[in-house]
Each structure stands twice: as C-alpha cells, then as structure tokens.
Amino acid sequence: MKRTLSYVGERALLVLISIVVLFPIAWMFLTAFKQPRDAYSLSLNFEPTLQNFVTVFSAPWNLGSMVMNSVVVATVTVAIAVPCAALAAYSFSRFRVKGRKFLFFLILSTQFIPAVVIVLPFFLMFRQLDMLDTRLALIIVNLAIVTPFVIWMIKGFIDAIPTDSEEAAMIDGASRLRVIKDIVLPMAAPGIMTSSIFCFILTWNEFLFALILSRRDAVTLPVGLVSFRTERGDLWELMSAAGVMITVPIFIMALFIQKHFTRGMTAGAVK
Q: Average of pLDDT values for 137-148?
C-alpha cells in the first residue's frame, strides 16, 4: 500500500508539473489560430484561422526578414563556434601544458558574467566600428557567448575517448591533425552534434544583445515579438503566431537533442 501510494503520488506530481509547463505553450498555439475578437476570450470554442500567420509576414511586421536574420546568425555562429570549440576542447583534454586548468577555468568563468553587465561595452565597441544593426555584430556577440559553453561540453565527450587508438595511429606515422580528423571527431560525433544543437538553440533564443545592438536591418525573431505592442495594446494573436514560428524549430531541435545526447553519453561510456 505504501509503495502504491508513493507511485500514485509521483505520477500525480508529474502530471501536475506537465500541465503547469505545457499549458502556456498550448494556449499560445491556440491563440495563434484565433481571430482578434477571440484572442482575449478564455473559451475554447472559436473559429480557427490562418490569417495571423499571413499578417505577420506582411507589412508593417515583415516577419520574414526576422526569420532570415535569426537563421543566418544562428547558422553562422554554429558553423564557426563548433569547429573552433572542438579543437580547443581536444587541446584541453589531451595536452598537459602548464596553466591548462587555470585557462580552462578562465574560459568557463565568462559564463558567470551577467549579460547586462557586458552589453554596454559591446554596444560602444560596435558603435565605434560602425557595426550596429548588422548580422556580423550579432554573430560576434553570440560567438563570445556560446563558444565557452561548447568547449566545456565537447571536452566532456573527448575525455571519455580512450587514447590507445590515437597513440597507435601516431606510432604508425599519422599526424596529430589526421588523428583528430579520422579518429577523435568520428568517435565524438554524437557529442559534437549535441553541442551544435545546443549552440543553435542558445543563439536562436538570444534576446538582450539582439535588442540592444539591432534597430531595423538585423532584428531577430525574439526581438520582433516586442514590435507587436502597439497603441491598441498587445496584439496577442499576432504575437502568438510569431511565437509559434520561434518555438517550432526549438521543438524539432529538442527531439534531436534527446536522441543524440543519449547516444553520445552511452557511446562515451562504452568507448
């Protein structure tokens, strides 16, 4: 009886937590298909429409340009950060140089600095360089944010790879770069994939720096949500439609994270 009550209590708690977490998301999806007159109603009885998605891609909202900005910034950030972080993670994992631990801690310590503290120096720097409201500025900022995290994450996967195969390959005459290319990277591929997805999600959801450093040309999706606050009030139906455009790619990424993260952890344990 005690075990049964414990089981029922755990399941009830999980259901309650799931409802609390999923309810706002479900309500956003419902509101995205509501007409303006139904957006403020709590009733589930409404006539669905796709007009909100058409409206957000039309003037003056022009969500399409924001989607393109977010895709370009997130993709380029991942394309640069992951290869550089993989090489840095391999160096921290394999080379026993003096000051290695301190340098690794110094890199990770940048993650503990609140973003609001460093946004002003970035703003002043990019203003002097005439780079405000550009995708390049957002890419540079996001690289500074995500690269330390990706280094730390990939290093954990490389640490789990035995060095026997690397040493055997170098004895046979393989260079260090060839060992990394042909042995380390394939074995650490699940971890690199997981890190890439996390990197993409962090960049895709970044709001503060994009809000401060962009005005019109480089506005990303999270910042674009602010534009739906007008003299009429918050346009919840349009804001929800834009929120769906932001959330759906993240849900898809979450599915990949679950598969690759589990595979990476088990592969590292076996190898």
A: 94
The answer to the question of residue 16 being in a domain is no
Distance CA 28, CA 268 (A): 39
Give the mean pLDDT of 72-76.
95
Query: Quick check: is 2 in a domain?
Result: no
Whether residue 24 has a cis bond before it, omega within 30° of 0: no
User: Domain count of the chain?
Assistant: 1
Ranges 9-13, 43-47, 149-153, 242-246: which has the least confidence = 43-47
Q: Is 242 exposed, middle or buried (0-12, 13-18, 19+ CB in 10 A)?
A: buried
Q: What is the pTM of this model?
A: 0.86
